[in-house]
Amino acid sequence: MLKKFSISVLLVTFFIFSASEICFAELALVRLTVGGITLGAEMDWVKETFGEPTKIFDTELNSSRFACHEYGEPPTINKNGVNHLRVLYNRGRVVQVICDGDDNKLQTFDGVKLRDHFSIVKAVYGEPDKEGKPPTKLKRNVRADKYLLYHSSSSSYNLMFLTKRGKVVAIFSGIVEVRE
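The structure assignment produced for this chain is given below.
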Protein backbone atom coordinates (compact mmCIF):
# COMPACT_ATOMS: atom_id res chain seq x y z
CA MET A 1 0.00 0.00 0.00
CA LEU A 2 2.80 2.39 0.95
CA LYS A 3 4.60 1.54 -2.30
CA LYS A 4 1.52 2.43 -4.38
CA PHE A 5 1.13 5.68 -2.45
CA SER A 6 4.81 6.60 -3.01
CA ILE A 7 4.52 5.92 -6.74
CA SER A 8 1.33 8.00 -6.91
CA VAL A 9 3.02 10.92 -5.14
CA LEU A 10 6.01 10.70 -7.51
CA LEU A 11 3.75 10.66 -10.57
CA VAL A 12 1.66 13.60 -9.37
CA THR A 13 4.84 15.57 -8.58
CA PHE A 14 6.25 14.77 -12.02
CA PHE A 15 3.07 15.89 -13.81
CA ILE A 16 2.81 19.08 -11.76
CA PHE A 17 6.47 19.90 -12.51
CA SER A 18 6.03 19.11 -16.22
CA ALA A 19 2.85 21.17 -16.46
CA SER A 20 4.45 24.14 -14.73
CA GLU A 21 7.41 23.92 -17.10
CA ILE A 22 5.11 23.96 -20.11
CA CYS A 23 2.89 26.71 -18.72
CA PHE A 24 5.81 29.02 -18.13
CA ALA A 25 7.62 27.90 -21.30
CA GLU A 26 10.87 27.94 -19.32
CA LEU A 27 12.85 24.85 -20.13
CA ALA A 28 15.31 22.98 -17.93
CA LEU A 29 18.80 23.04 -19.44
CA VAL A 30 18.83 19.29 -20.19
CA ARG A 31 15.80 19.79 -22.49
CA LEU A 32 17.99 21.94 -24.77
CA THR A 33 19.96 18.85 -25.84
CA VAL A 34 19.96 18.48 -29.65
CA GLY A 35 21.37 15.52 -31.57
CA GLY A 36 22.54 14.04 -28.28
CA ILE A 37 24.79 17.07 -27.64
CA THR A 38 24.19 18.74 -24.28
CA LEU A 39 25.12 22.36 -23.75
CA GLY A 40 28.36 22.48 -21.76
CA ALA A 41 29.65 19.19 -23.25
CA GLU A 42 33.37 19.10 -23.97
CA MET A 43 34.70 19.52 -27.51
CA ASP A 44 36.66 16.24 -27.22
CA TRP A 45 33.45 14.31 -26.44
CA VAL A 46 31.69 15.78 -29.50
CA LYS A 47 34.67 14.83 -31.70
CA GLU A 48 34.73 11.30 -30.27
CA THR A 49 30.99 10.94 -30.90
CA PHE A 50 30.64 12.61 -34.33
CA GLY A 51 34.19 12.28 -35.67
CA GLU A 52 36.30 15.01 -37.18
CA PRO A 53 34.30 18.03 -38.37
CA THR A 54 34.07 18.73 -42.11
CA LYS A 55 34.76 22.42 -41.46
CA ILE A 56 36.40 24.36 -38.59
CA PHE A 57 36.37 28.15 -38.29
CA ASP A 58 35.83 31.04 -35.87
CA THR A 59 32.59 32.99 -35.88
CA GLU A 60 31.05 35.94 -34.06
CA LEU A 61 27.78 35.94 -32.14
CA ASN A 62 26.51 38.64 -29.76
CA SER A 63 29.84 40.49 -30.20
CA SER A 64 31.84 37.47 -28.96
CA ARG A 65 34.08 35.08 -30.91
CA PHE A 66 33.49 31.33 -30.84
CA ALA A 67 35.13 28.25 -32.34
CA CYS A 68 32.73 26.56 -34.77
CA HIS A 69 32.75 22.96 -36.00
CA GLU A 70 30.45 21.84 -38.82
CA TYR A 71 29.50 18.28 -39.70
CA GLY A 72 28.00 17.62 -43.15
CA GLU A 73 27.02 20.29 -45.68
CA PRO A 74 24.32 22.95 -45.32
CA PRO A 75 21.04 22.00 -47.06
CA THR A 76 21.61 24.70 -49.69
CA ILE A 77 24.72 22.75 -50.82
CA ASN A 78 23.83 19.23 -49.72
CA LYS A 79 21.37 17.44 -51.97
CA ASN A 80 21.82 13.98 -50.43
CA GLY A 81 19.42 14.34 -47.49
CA VAL A 82 22.19 14.28 -44.89
CA ASN A 83 21.96 16.34 -41.74
CA HIS A 84 24.01 19.45 -41.23
CA LEU A 85 25.19 20.02 -37.68
CA ARG A 86 26.95 23.16 -36.43
CA VAL A 87 28.46 23.30 -32.93
CA LEU A 88 29.83 26.48 -31.31
CA TYR A 89 32.33 26.30 -28.46
CA ASN A 90 33.53 28.73 -25.83
CA ARG A 91 36.70 27.59 -24.06
CA GLY A 92 36.21 24.04 -25.32
CA ARG A 93 32.59 23.70 -24.15
CA VAL A 94 29.42 23.61 -26.27
CA VAL A 95 27.41 26.86 -26.17
CA GLN A 96 25.25 26.36 -29.29
CA VAL A 97 24.03 23.48 -31.45
CA ILE A 98 22.24 23.98 -34.77
CA CYS A 99 20.89 21.17 -36.91
CA ASP A 100 19.19 21.43 -40.27
CA GLY A 101 18.81 19.25 -43.34
CA ASP A 102 16.39 16.82 -44.86
CA ASP A 103 17.07 13.81 -42.66
CA ASN A 104 15.15 13.68 -39.38
CA LYS A 105 17.49 11.52 -37.32
CA LEU A 106 18.74 14.38 -35.15
CA GLN A 107 16.22 15.37 -32.51
CA THR A 108 15.75 17.32 -29.31
CA PHE A 109 15.85 15.75 -25.86
CA ASP A 110 12.03 15.61 -26.00
CA GLY A 111 11.95 13.90 -29.42
CA VAL A 112 11.09 16.79 -31.77
CA LYS A 113 12.80 16.14 -35.12
CA LEU A 114 13.50 17.94 -38.35
CA ARG A 115 10.42 17.79 -40.63
CA ASP A 116 8.01 17.50 -37.68
CA HIS A 117 5.00 19.81 -37.94
CA PHE A 118 5.15 22.93 -35.75
CA SER A 119 2.01 21.72 -33.95
CA ILE A 120 4.17 18.91 -32.51
CA VAL A 121 6.63 21.51 -31.21
CA LYS A 122 3.78 23.33 -29.48
CA ALA A 123 2.32 20.09 -28.11
CA VAL A 124 5.70 19.20 -26.57
CA TYR A 125 6.91 22.64 -25.42
CA GLY A 126 3.70 24.67 -25.10
CA GLU A 127 3.20 28.15 -26.50
CA PRO A 128 6.51 29.82 -27.41
CA ASP A 129 7.85 32.86 -25.58
CA LYS A 130 8.34 34.50 -28.95
CA GLU A 131 7.10 33.65 -32.44
CA GLY A 132 7.15 35.37 -35.81
CA LYS A 133 8.93 35.80 -39.11
CA PRO A 134 12.63 35.00 -38.86
CA PRO A 135 15.06 37.90 -39.05
CA THR A 136 16.87 38.34 -42.36
CA LYS A 137 20.17 37.08 -40.92
CA LEU A 138 18.59 33.72 -40.05
CA LYS A 139 16.74 33.50 -43.37
CA ARG A 140 20.07 33.74 -45.23
CA ASN A 141 21.33 30.55 -43.59
CA VAL A 142 18.13 28.49 -43.50
CA ARG A 143 15.10 29.20 -45.65
CA ALA A 144 12.20 29.53 -43.23
CA ASP A 145 8.98 31.49 -42.87
CA LYS A 146 8.48 31.30 -39.08
CA TYR A 147 10.35 30.86 -35.82
CA LEU A 148 9.29 29.59 -32.38
CA LEU A 149 11.54 30.61 -29.46
CA TYR A 150 11.50 29.06 -25.98
CA HIS A 151 13.47 30.41 -23.01
CA SER A 152 15.36 28.09 -20.70
CA SER A 153 15.90 28.25 -16.96
CA SER A 154 19.36 29.64 -17.84
CA SER A 155 19.21 33.27 -18.91
CA SER A 156 21.90 32.65 -21.55
CA TYR A 157 20.38 29.73 -23.45
CA ASN A 158 17.23 29.22 -25.52
CA LEU A 159 15.67 26.70 -27.87
CA MET A 160 14.43 27.84 -31.27
CA PHE A 161 12.71 26.09 -34.14
CA LEU A 162 12.63 27.48 -37.67
CA THR A 163 9.75 26.26 -39.82
CA LYS A 164 8.82 26.43 -43.48
CA ARG A 165 5.26 25.66 -44.57
CA GLY A 166 4.58 24.29 -41.09
CA LYS A 167 7.52 21.85 -40.97
CA VAL A 168 10.62 22.18 -38.76
CA VAL A 169 13.62 22.95 -41.00
CA ALA A 170 16.18 23.87 -38.30
CA ILE A 171 16.66 23.56 -34.55
CA PHE A 172 18.85 26.01 -32.62
CA SER A 173 19.87 25.36 -29.02
CA GLY A 174 22.01 27.43 -26.68
CA ILE A 175 23.00 31.01 -27.38
CA VAL A 176 20.31 32.13 -29.82
CA GLU A 177 20.30 35.65 -31.18
CA VAL A 178 17.00 36.91 -32.58
CA ARG A 179 17.07 40.53 -33.62
CA GLU A 180 14.31 41.95 -35.78
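Interim note for the steering committee: Residues 2-24 form the longest helix (23 residues). The chain has a mean pLDDT of 79.
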